[in-house]
Each structure stands twice: as structure tokens, then as C-alpha cells.
């Protein structure tokens, strides 16, 4: 939706989306008619059925500015009136049932009062900052609303670069043509994050990447880190940035050509921000790094394309690019620029942050403990029973809606239909008698795995058609899918269902579940040339539960 000229924005945004594996179709609103197109839609936008709405506005769209003759009350009245106009447009956009992205406001290019613009109630700078704070509060309180931080982009790239008066007067571009790619990349980062296309893990070299020097030659005391030297400060800040990513649920892993016993001593230093237990996998050996990354992906049970590989050595970067082209390998220059190389790319853009996200690294470490325990059992069922698993299963509800939405849009491997749902669509299923919904949360003696599985079935008479069935890769091979199906059969039978219809739509990532329905008692009834399959289950009479290795807690 347009607050200014958007033709080139559409073209550049398409390139960034395609680079993230997203093939878009666009509906372009009329020039500077974002409010009218959203609030008074003539039916064309509704017919288009958008998956996302982007409202491209800027400070050029502010109509009511404070004037010198206004008293404080008049200034506040203008602020509230201006915010109400944008809020009305946002709420109209949310009515289309999809995520909405809106810019916050860039600062005016000129200051009539100079520095006082930022403190005086009549100052446009202060007015914009207040407006941005109101918009941020609205986004914080409103599901499905996301802010594209235009104010940050303007500060990052510089006001004189970001705003081009000639481009505005001649072509009505609120952002300079030079900076349009940065704007479009930022919007694309939000969209790809909402579609579950973020990176999940970092594979990190050590020598001259996390510290200066070669630990095998210089020893732990000889490597450069900490705040005593300029170079050491750069490495310390970089480690701090990585540690912060880890706290958000990004999986940190070591991938270094070193002796492991020696490499670990670097993290024993008091001035090392990162410690050895911050890492999920610690691959310090002399194997090719692409083999170590592939091994880590297998151990963690995520796809190699979920990794970003960081190494100061251009030869190592090139080998990984060649051998594992699906792994992202950014260019690195000097240590002072390492943070920018990751941060500017938006590999780990956060659109929602759940409690499960913050515990993700710990959950994967618990999985490693489970794998170690498994080795001591000769019988797999005995191992599963020894975990003392408790599965909480319930219908979708408001407290879990955000996490369910996030899981739906991030899960690719155990995902039978790869359908995606917005927050609004998930909320529409709460207490909806036409659907049978279930989420599953798994706890065992090693810890809480969190909410890791969900299913959605559409009830039509005595037929239940499965629209969605997903499960996190963290809980593969734990019989959780069988527990979920046992409960589904019980609830479906109670609702008068006699047939459950399941679909499998193949992708490059979900081949794991190609035959899943057949393994739990479904019969394949159709398959087309593309491999899309339909299965049916009618075995309600005399059904015997299939799980048998965990306690079920119904909520």
C-alpha cells in the first residue's frame, strides 16, 4: 500500500524475496492512497486475498504538524489525531486476515529550531519520535502487526543518503533510490522470518574468528581477546553479540581445525565472553569443515541450509560454499566488521520470541543427553519408557496460539501438507466446532521440550480432513506422533467421525514423512503425477492405542 511512489520498491523487493525462495505476486495500491485503499477497499484487495500487506509510509505522509502558535494541548491533539489515522489504516489492513508490515517514521531532513527540535513540543523531531513510540506500542499489543524500522535504517545509512530531495520532488520517492535496496531487504527479512525461512544455527571457526591468533601455536594465554587491546575489544564484542543470539535460541557450534582439548582452553579464560557450554556441537578436529557441518546438522537434526558458517579464511569459506551450497557463507573482512556481516544480512530476524525460543539451545543439549542414554539400551522401547515422558495434549487455546503459529510457519520436515497459517487464522480456530485441533507438549526426565507438535482437522459430517500435522525435529522418533494420533482417534470418534482423510504434498524437505500415514493405519486412496497422496483411516472399531511409552495428560 502506497504512501509514496512504490514502483521500484516492488521490483527490488521481489528480488530479495526470490533470493529467499519466495515467489511473490503483488497487488499495488494507488499512489499515496494507502488509507483509502485499506479503509474503503472496493473489493479488489479482498479478491486478491493477500498473504501479507506492506504499508509503505514515511514522515512525508504526516499531515498535522505542530505549529509555533499551538499550545501544548493542541500539539497533543494533533499527535493523537495523526496516530488515529494510521491506526485506522492498520486495523483495516489487519481485517484482511494476514500479517501487516508498516514503516515507522523517518525523521524530517531539516530542523527549523535546530537541536531544540528534539525536546520542544512544537518540534517535528520530537513529534515523530512520539508518533513512533505510539506505533511501537500498538505493534507490541497487536498480533500480526510488524514494524519495518525506517527510523533505524535512516540512522544507519545517514539522513543525507537516505532522503533525496530531488527524488522526492521529481518522482515522489520518500526514500532515496540509493537506499531502496536496504529498505526492501528489511521488509523481505520480516516476511521470510514469518514464513519460517530464518537461519537456525551458526558454525563458527575459532582462530582469528572468535579470538585473535592461533591457539595451537600461541596457547590460551597468547590469543587476543578481552578489553585490554583494541583488537581484543573487537573479538569481545563479537563474542557478546553471538552470546546474545544464543539467548534468543540461535544454536552456536564450533567448527575449527584444532585439537579439541587445546581449543576448549580458549574459553576457560576469564575474559572470554563465550564459554564452552554455550556451544551445542564442538567440532575441533582436522576433518574438512564441510563434513563437520554436515555431521552437526545430522546430530542436531536440522537441515544444512539452516546454518550460517563464519570463518576468517577465504579458502575455507570457498570450500564450504562449493561442497555445501545450501549453507550460507558470508564474506568476512576485519574483526571490527564481523558483527555487521551478520547483523546487516538479517539471517536471524526476530518477529516473535516465545519462551520455547529462549530455551531452544538447552532443549537440544537435553536431546544429546537422551541420545547418550539410548546407547545403553538394547531395546528401543525400553529406552523410550526410561525417559519418563509425559505428553500434554489439548485443543488450541489463546495462551498457546502464538507458539502454535510460530511452529506452523517454521516446521518443514515433519509437515505433511506444508500449509501455513497466520496468527489471525489460528485464532479463528479457537472454539470453532468445525475443526478438531490439537497441540502437544512433551516433558521427560531431562527437561521440557516445549510445545512441539500441532494438528488441524476440518470436520465435514462424519469425515475429518487433516489440513495440517506438524512436529518439531527435536522430538523425532519419540512416539509423540503416535500419542497425538491416539488422542485424535478418541476425540474424532466422540465427535461422530467415521473417516479421517490425510494428505501428503511432497517438498524437498518433507520426504521423511512420505509414508507416515501408511505406518499408522491409513490406506492410500489416490496419488497424482506430482506425488501428492491422499490417505484414509476408517479403523475406529477396536482401535488399539499405538504409543504405549508415555503418560498422556489431557488438558
TrEMBL record:
Alphabetized SUPFAM superfamilies for the sequence: HAD-like
Q: Which residues form the BF1531-like N-terminal domain?
A: 27-192
Q: Which organism is it from?
A: Candidatus Allofournierella merdipullorum
User: What is this protein's record name?
Assistant: HAD-IIIC family phosphatase
Please give the Pfam families that the UniProt record associates with this protein. FkbH_N
Amino acid at each position: 500500500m502506497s504512501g509514496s511512489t512504490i514502483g521500484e520498491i516492488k521490483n527490488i523487493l521481489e528480488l530479495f524475496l526470490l533470493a529467499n525462495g519466495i515467489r511473490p505476486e503483488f497487488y499495488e495500491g494507488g499512489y499515496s492512497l494507502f488509507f483509502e485503499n485499506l479503509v474503503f477497499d472496493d473489493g479488489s484487495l479482498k479478491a486478491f486475498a493477500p498473504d501479507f500487506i506492506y504499508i509503505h509510509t514515511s514522515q512525508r505522509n504526516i499531515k498535522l504538524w505542530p505549529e509555533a502558535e499551538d499550545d501544548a494541548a493542541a500539539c497533543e491533539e494533533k499527535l493523537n489525531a495523526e496516530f488515529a489515522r494510521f491506526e485506522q489504516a492498520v486495523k483495516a489492513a489487519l481485517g484482511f486476515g494476514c500479517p501487516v508490515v508498516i514503516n515507522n517514521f523517518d525523521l524530517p531532513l531539516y530542523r527549523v529550531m535546530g537541536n531544540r527540535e528534539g525536546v520542544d513540543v512544537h518540534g517535528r523531531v520530537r513529534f515523530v519520535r512520539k508518533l513512533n513510540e505510539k506505533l511501537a506500542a500498538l505493534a507490541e499489543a497487536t498480533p500480526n502487526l510488524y514494524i519495518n524500522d525506517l527510523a533505524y535504517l535512516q540512522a544507519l545509512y545517514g539522513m543525507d543518503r537516505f532522503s533525496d530531495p530531488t527524488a522526492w520532488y521529481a518522482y515522489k520517492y520518500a526514500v532515496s533510490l540509493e537506499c531502496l535496496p536496504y529498505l526492501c531487504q528489511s521488509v523481505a527479512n520480516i516476511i521470510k522470518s514469518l514464513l519460517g525461512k530464518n537461519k537456525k544455527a551458526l558454525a563458527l571457526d575459532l582462530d582469528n574468528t572468535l579470538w585473535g591468533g592461533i591457539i595451537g601455536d600461541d596457547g590460551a594465554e597468547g590469543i587476543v581477546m578481552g578489553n585490554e587491546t583494541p583488537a581484543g575489544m573487537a573479538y569481545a564484542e563479537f563474542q557478546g553479540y553471538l552470546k546474545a543470539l544464543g539467548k534468543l535460541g540461535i544454536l552456536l557450534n564450533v567448527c575449527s581445525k584444532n585439537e579439541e582439548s587445546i581449543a576448549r582452553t580458549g574459553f576457560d579464560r576469564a575474559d572470554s565472553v563465550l564459554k564452552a557450554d554455550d556451544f551445542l556441537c564442538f567440532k575441533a578436529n582436522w576433518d574438512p569443515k564441510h563434513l563437520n557441518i554436515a555431521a552437526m546438522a545430522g546430530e542436531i537434526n536440522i537441515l544444512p541450509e539452516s546454518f550460517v558458517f563464519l570463518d576468517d579464511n577465504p579458502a575455507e569459506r570457498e570450500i564450504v560454499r562449493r561442497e555445501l551450497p545450501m549453507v550460507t557463507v558470508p564474506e568476512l573482512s576485519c574483526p571490527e566488521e564481523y558483527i555487521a556481516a551478520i547483523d546487516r544480512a538479517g539471517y536471524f530476524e526476530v518477529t516473535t520470541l516465545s519462551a520455547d525460543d529462549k530455551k531452544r539451545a538447552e532443549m537440544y543439549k537435553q536431546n544429546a543427553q537422551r541420545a547418550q542414554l539410548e546407547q545403553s539400551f538394547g531395546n528401543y522401547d525400553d529406552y523410550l519408557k526410561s525417559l519418563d515422558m509425559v505428553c500434554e495434549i489439548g485443543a488450541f487455546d489463546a495462551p498457546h496460539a502464538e507458539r502454535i503459529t510460530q511452529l506452523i510457519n517454521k516446521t518443514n520436515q515433519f509437515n505433511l501438507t506444508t500449509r501455513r497459517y497466520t496468527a489471525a487464522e489460528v485464532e479463528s480456530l479457537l472454539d470453532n466446532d468445525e475443526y478438531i485441533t490439537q497441540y502437544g507438549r512433551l516433558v521427560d526426565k531431562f527437561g521440557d521440550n516445549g510445545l512441539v507438535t500441532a494438528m488441524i482437522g476440518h470436520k465435514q459430517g462424519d469425515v475429518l480432513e487433516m489440513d495440517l500435522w506438524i512436529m518439531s525435529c527435536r522430538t523425532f522418533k519419540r512416539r509423540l506422533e503416535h500419542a497425538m494420533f491416539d488422542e485424535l482417534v478418541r476425540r474424532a470418534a466422540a465427535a461422530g467421525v467415521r473417516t479421517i482423510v490425510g494428505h501428503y504434498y511432497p517438498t524437498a524437505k518433507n520426504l521423511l514423512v512420505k509414508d507416515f500415514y501408511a505406518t499408522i493405519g491409513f490406506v492410500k486412496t489416490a496419488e497424482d503425477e506430482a506425488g501428492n497422496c491422499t490417505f484414509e483411516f476408517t479403523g475406529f472399531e477396536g482401535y488399539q492405542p499405538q504409543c504405549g511409552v508415555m503418560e498422556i495428560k489431557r488438558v
